[in-house]
Design goal:
- There is one protein chain.
- The protein has 198 residues and is of the alpha/beta class.
- It has a single domain, classed as 3-Layer(aba) Sandwich (Rossmann fold).
- Helices cover 32% and strands 31% of the residues.
- The strands form three sheets. Strands 3, 4, 5, 6, 7, 8, 9 and 10 form an eight-stranded mixed β-sheet that branches.
- The model has no long low-confidence stretch (mean pLDDT 92).
């Protein structure tokens, strides 16, 4: 995972390569972010005999990408959990105030009692992730987990302060934020690099 993250950080990495790497790292991180989801036993028939075998407990999980960059993580997660539901939350960071602005929310009416995984490649100031988590908690899920590729210490602190009950899964905690709220050394604007809008 660290090797793939290094390839993503390189300025010379093409849009195609970057997009593929984001999906691959998300797929690898899927195992870590779900390792403690509750299991129950189900009776199944193998080719040899009947047995009780572990399956995920409860309703299907819901993947929640923060638009637009979070969409880059979605395919990798869906490769591991193809039957997961997908909700969408649109939040952008106002470049002057660095505050989050919600512009879209679309989810099933059945988020209550489900396990949610919030997806965003970057945890910079933490403001967007905090706002998205605030919104999702209003739906009363069983759990929320936040998955990102790269985070800044400032963003991790802000998120933990606002939501100490929501675990953060990140591939790297970088050095700091610059004056414009970008992660250093970071990997640039993940959305632009995923969608080729540089």
């Amino acid at each position: 995972m660290q090797h793939k993250l290094t390839l993503m950080r390189r300025k010379s990495t093409s849009v195609t390569e970057f997009r593929e790497l984001v999906g691959e790292v998300a797929m690898l991180m899927a195992y870590e972010v779900t390792k403690d989801l509750p299991l129950t036993k189900a009776k199944i028939q193998t080719p040899m005999e009947t047995m009780m075998s572990p399956v995920l407990q409860g309703e299907k999980m819901v993947l929640v990408p923060i638009l637009r960059a979070g969409m880059g993580l979605l395919d990798g997660m869906l490769r591991i959990f193809p039957s997961a539901r997908v909700a969408h939350i649109g939040i952008y960071r106002d470049h002057k105030t660095l505050e989050p602005v919600e512009y879209y929310f679309k989810a099933s009416k059945t988020l209550r009692g489900r396990d949610l995984i919030l997806l965003d490649p970057m945890l910079a100031t933490g403001n967007s992730a905090v706002a998205a988590t605030d919104r999702l908690k209003g739906a009363h899920p069983r759990s929320i987990r936040f998955l990102c590729l790269v985070s800044a210490p400032e963003g991790v602190r802000a998120f933990r302060k606002a939501h100490p009950d929501v675990p953060v899964y990140t591939a790297a905690i970088d050095r700091k934020l610059n004056a414009h709220g970008y992660i250093l050394p970071g990997l640039g604007d993940a959305g632009d690099r995923i969608f080729g809008t540089l």
